Amino acid sequence: MCGISGIVSYKNVSKRLVKSLSNLEYRGYDSCGVAYLRNGQIEIRKDIGTISEVEARERLSDPVSCIGIAHTRWATHGGVTKANAHPHLSYHQNFVIIHNGIISNFRELREELSKQGYEFKSDTDSEIVAQLLEYHYEQTKDVEQALVDTIHRLEGSYAFATITPYDPERIYCTRHESPLLIGVGPDSQYIGSDLNAFIEYTKNLITLSDGEYAILDKDGYVIKNAMTGREAQREITHISWDAEISKKGGYPHFMLKEIHEEPQVVHTVMQLESEKIAKLAEMINEAKRVYLTGMGTAYYVTVIAQYYLAQLTGKFYNTLCADEFENVGEFDEDTLVIAVSQSGETYDTLSALRCAKNRGAKTAAVVNMLGSTMSHDVDHVIMQGSGSEICVLSTKAALAQVVALIRTGIELGSHFSPDQAEEFDQRRREILQTPQYIQQILDELSGIIRLIANKIYHITNWLFLGRGIYYAVSLEGALKLKEVTYHHAESMTGGFMKHGTISLIDSQMGSVFFVPPETEKKLHTDTMSNVEEIKARGGFVLGVHSGPFNPLFDQQIILPDAPPFIMPLLHIAASHLLAYFVAVKLRRNIDKPRSLAKSVTVP
Amino acid sequence: MKTLILAAGVGRNLRPLTSTRPKSMIKLCNKTILHHLLDMLKEVGISDVEIVIGHEGRKILDYFRYGQDFGMDINYLNQKEPTNIGDAVMLARDKFADSNYFLLVYSDIFIRKNIIKNTLTSFRSAQKPVAAVCLTSSTSLFGNIYMASDMQITRIVEKPEKSLGNYVLAGAYILPTEFFDILESENRDIEKAYSRLLKDKGLYASIWEEDWVHLGYPWDILTANQIIMNSWKEARIHRSVSMDGHVRIEGPVRIDKNVRIESGTTIKGPCYIGADSYIGNNVLIRQNSSIGEGSVVGFGVEMKNSVLFGQNRIGRLSFVGDSVVGEHTVIGSGVMTVNTTLDGSPIGVNINGKEINSSFEKLGSFIGDRVEIGAGNTLRFGSIVPSGTKIKEHFSIS
Fold first, then answer.
1. What is residue A154's predicted lDDT score, i.e. its pLDDT?
2. CB-CB: which of B125, B135, B206 is closest to A450?
C-alpha cells in the first residue's frame, strides 16, 4: 500500500531520493515525506498531496545529506493528514522511521509505552516502531540490539527502515510479510519496496527474507537473521531491465504505454524457457486437485486460463479468489495451488499460498516482479518478464499471464493426447501470431475506439456480457472500466443476464457484448440472441466482434479476423483501450485511480 | 530551439473565409490562431521564430510586426509562389544551418493546450526526431502512422482512401537539420521526406491526447471556437459594459469593453461579445456564439453556434445558426440561415466544386467579408457566399 525508499551514499542523496520516491508513487499517493541526517540532527519534510505538490511546497530535495529515507503513503490506519504522513519521529526525536504494512498489535504496544511516558503524535500504527526503537535503545544503548528487540515485539506485516543520530552513517531495515529490496551500488546502497525505487541507479539487487534485517552503509551491507543473530549470505541478482522501461516517453499515460507493449510481452512469454512451462504442466499433471488463484485482474486471468485449459486438456480446474481460500479451500499433499500476481506481493494471494503450504500443498506462481516475495516463496515460479508495469491497472502483465497459462495448457494437452500433436503445434503457431494482430488493433482501431468512447462516456451503468471464454473476457473488461472510469460495470454470462438482471435494462443502461466469432456457431448464435433481448428492451449495445458490420449494435468495434483460438486475447486488448479512452474523456487520474494501489499488501 | 512556422498556405478549402486573410489570421474570440500558437511557444521559452508567409502575408506582418509587442523576435520568410510545403520549409535552410534540431509547426491547426510543450518533453526524453501525433475522426485527410511500442514510427500512410483509426501526424515536429538535405533529395516532397527520415534516422511519435482541430474546411472554425469556449468556467464581463434591467445572462459569458445590451435580451453561455458592440432588445444569443468587435445585433435576432468575425450588422428578426460570417458583412432584417434538413441527414457543402460531407446534422452558411445580404432572404444549409457578394432584398410582394 505504501512505498519506501532509502539511500546511503558518499554523495548527496536528496535529489536521488525524491526521484526514487516518484518512481514508487504508484504504490500510494495521498501523502509523502523524507527524512535526512544532517550534522547529527534529523530533518523531516513531509505533507499530504502528490510528490510533485509536496516537493513544490516543502522542497523535499533541498537539504544536502549523504543519508536519507523516504515514504509515499496510501492510508490504512489514520486519516490523510500531515501528522500521519511518514517519516515518524520517536518521542525524544532520536529515531525516525518509514513503514509499509500493518502492525496488528500496535494498540497494546502503544498503551504500554504511553504508561512509560511516551507521547504519540499521529494516529498511525507506524509511529509505534519509532517509539519502540527509542525505548529499547534507552535500555541497551545499542542501535542494532534495539532493532532486534523491536522486531521481537512487533506482530503483523511490515517493512520498515530507520536512521538515527546514534549511528549517523547507517540505514537499518527489516521486513516481515511486506516487500523490501536492497540495491547494491559502488558508492551508494539503496532500499526500496520494489526495484523501481533504485533501478535508475543500480541493477544489483538483493531480496530480504522474512525475519531478516539489514544494516547498510555507503560501502556495503550486512544481512542478519533476527532470531538467530547469524549473518546471512545472499546472492546478488543482476537485473537486465533498462531504467528507460519505466519512463513514459512520448506516451501521455503509463496505461497507454503498457497497452502498446502488449504485443511485445506476448512475444516475450512465448520465448520463456520451455522447461519452466513443462515443469508447471508436470506439477498440474501430478496433482490430484488444482487451484488457480489471484486477486483482481490476476484472478480474472485465472478464469480466462480456466477456459483455455478446459479447451486444451478437456479437464476442469478450480479457480478461487485468494481471500476465500481459508473459507472453502480443501488442501492436502496432493493439492497444487497456482497463483497469479503482477507484483508478487499481493497480501491475499500470499496468505492463500501460505495457508495451502501449511497443509502440505505444492505451490506455483506466475509473477512479473523480480525479487518479489511470491517469486521465491513458491515451489515453482514462472517469471513472465513483462517489464515494470507502472500504471496501477494491470494491462500488459495480465495479458502475458494469460499467454503463460495457455502455453502450460498446450504442454499439458500434448501430454494427455500425444496423437493430436499437430493440432497443438497449430495452436502454438496461432499464439505466435497474436502480437501482430494486437499491433493491428493498436495501430488501426485506436481512433475508432476513442470515437466510440467519446460517444458513450456519459453512460454510468454497464453490463459486460459474453458466453464461454468470452464471459471470462467480459469479467476483465468490466473490471478495467470500473477501476479507471469509476463507472459501474458488472459482468455475467449472457444466459445468466436473463435470470434477474435483465430487469435493469432501459435506455440508460449500456451493455458491452464480447461476441465470439461466427465459427463458434452455438456460442455466437446464443450471444446474438442475448443482444436481441437487450435491444428489445431499449438498451444500448456496444458490440466487440470480428465482423462483418452489424446494424443491430448501436456501436461496434470490429476486430481483425484472427484465428478463433486467439480471438479472446484480441478482445482483451480492445477492452483495455476502451476503458482507457473513456477515462481520458472523463479526465480521470488514469495511472493512479482514486483509492487504488498497485500491489495491495494489506488484508 | 530554432522554430519555423508555416503560414503561407492559400487555404483554398476554407474560402471564402480565407480569400482575404491567411488561415492563421482567423480570429477566435478576439485572438488569431497564430497568436494562440505564439503564446504556446513563449510559454516554453521560445522567442525566436521564423514564419513563412505567402498568401495575404502582409496581414501577418502588419499584426505581429517583428514581435516587439509580443516580447518575441519574429522574422519572415516570403514564399513568393504558393507551390508546396517542401519549398516553404526549404526557405529556412540557411537560417538553421548552425543548429542540430529545429521545431517545425503548421499554423493551420488549432489546439488550446500546449502541444509544443508536450512535443519538447518527448524530444528531451528520446533525443531523436519527434512528431506529434493524435487521433481524429477523419484520418483520410492526414498522414496515418504505424508505430512500435517504443513509439518509433515504422510507416506513414499518407491520406489513405479509407478512414481508419490510426494516429495521424498532428503538425508539430522536432527535426534534425539534416532534414533539409533529405527534403532536397526527395525533390522537396515533404511526405516522402518524412518517410525517408524515419528509415534513415528514426522518427518518434509523441501522443497528443487533448483537443485538436485541423482547419481544413469552414465548419472546422466552429469546432475550434467550441473548444475554446468549452474550457471556460466562469463569466467575465468588463466593468464598462452597460446593460438595462431584464438582461439575462447564463453560464460562462465573456463580454469585452464598451458593449451595450438592451433589455429583454438573453445570453446563454458559453458566448463571447467583442468590444464596442451593440446588442438590441429581445435578442437571444445561444451557446457557442462569438460576436467580433464593433458589431451591431438588431432587435429580436437569434444566434447559435456561430462565429462573427467583427464589424458586422445583423438586422432585426434574423436567425444566424451554425454559421461563420466574415468581417464587415451586413445581414439585413429577417434573414434566415437554414441549418438543418428535414430528414436530419448530414449536410454536404460544395467546396470548390466538390460536394464534401461535413458530417454535421446542423450547419448554416459560410459568408465571406464585406458581403451584403438584403432583407428577407433565406440561405440554404451549407451555403457558401463569396466575399463582396451583394444579394438583393427578397420580397414576396413587389
1. 93
2. B135
Q: Is the domain covering A254-439 a CATH 1.10.10.10 domain?
A: no
Stated pTM of the model: 0.76
- Are A446 and B122 in contact (CB < 8 Å)? no
Nearest to B290 by CA among B275, B257, B110: B275
The pLDDT score that the predictor gives to residue B56 is: 85
Which chain A residues are Cβ-neighbours of B130 within 8 angstroms? 250
Instruction: Give the H or E element holding residue B195.
Output: helix B190-200
Q: Which of A396, A480, A592, A598 is catalytic?
A: A598
Taking only the tens place, the pLDDT of each residue in B87-139 is 888 888 888 888 889 999 999 888 888 899 889 888 877 778 999 999 988 88
**Average pLDDT for B376-381:** 94
Task: Spell out which residues of chain A touch residue B223, defining contact as CB-CB under 8 Å.
Answer: none
ipTM: 0.79
- Sheet of strand B384-385, all strands in order from the earlier edge strand to the far edge: B236-237, B253-255, B271-273, B289-291, B307-308, B324-325, B366-367, B384-385
CA dist B280 and A538 (Å) reads: 46
pLDDT digits (tens, 9 = 90+) for B306-356: 999 999 999 999 999 999 999 999 999 999 999 999 888 899 999 988 898
3-state secondary structure of B354: strand
Domain range list for chain A: 3-245, 254-439, 445-603
Same fold, A254-439 and A445-603: yes
A240-266 pLDDT per residue, tens = 655 444 567 788 999 999 999 999 999
Tell me chain B's radius of gyration from C-alpha atoms: 22
CB interface of A with B, residues 556-585, below 8 Å: 584
- Closest to B217 measured CA to CA, from B321, B330, B310, B108: B108
Query: Which of A264, A447, A584 is closest, CB to CB, to B166?
Result: A447
B127 close contact with A: CB closer than 8 A: no
Asked if B165 and A263 come within 8 Å (Cβ–Cβ), the reply is no
In angstroms, the Cα distances linking B198 to A85, B131, B149 are 48, 10, 15
Superfamily of domain covering A3-245: Aminohydrolase, N-terminal nucleophile (Ntn) domain (3.60.20.10)
**Which of A250, A260, A447 is the closest to B164 by Cβ?**
A447
Residue A156: pLDDT band (50, 70, 90) is: confident
The whole-angstrom distance between B135's CA and the closest CA on chain A is: 5
Angle at B200 between CA B199 and CA B202, to 5 degrees: 65
Partner-chain contact A263 B137, CB within 8 Å: no
**Phi-psi group of B119: left, alpha or beta (phi > 0 → left; psi -120 to 50 → alpha; rest → beta):** alpha
The lowest-confidence range among A269-273, A578-582, B316-320 is: A269-273
Spell out which residues of chain A touch residue B209, defining contact as CB-CB under 8 Å.
252, 584
Q: How confident is the model at residue A602 (pLDDT cuts 50, 70, 90)?
A: low
Task: Tell me how close the Cα of B374 comes to any Cα of chain A, in angstroms.
Answer: 41
Q: Is B345 at the interface with chain A, CB within 8 A? A: no
Four-residue CA torsion sign, A136, A141, A144, A148: negative
Q: What is the pLDDT of residue A1?
A: 59
CATH topology classification for A445-603 = Rossmann fold (3.40.50)
Chain B hits for A449, CB-CB cut-off 8 Å, are: 165
Domains of chain B, first to last: 2-216 (3.90.550.10), 229-391 (2.160.10.10)
Instruction: Indicate the residue of B135, B151, B166 with minimum beta-carbon distance to A250.
Output: B151
**Which candidate, B314, B316, B317, places its Cα nearest to that of B330?**
B314
Minimal Cα–Cα distance from A36 to chain B, Å? 30
Whether A321 sits among the annotated catalytic residues: the reply is: no
- For residues A227 and A174, the answer to whether their CB atoms sit within 8 Å is no
Q: Is A66 assigned a catalytic role?
A: no
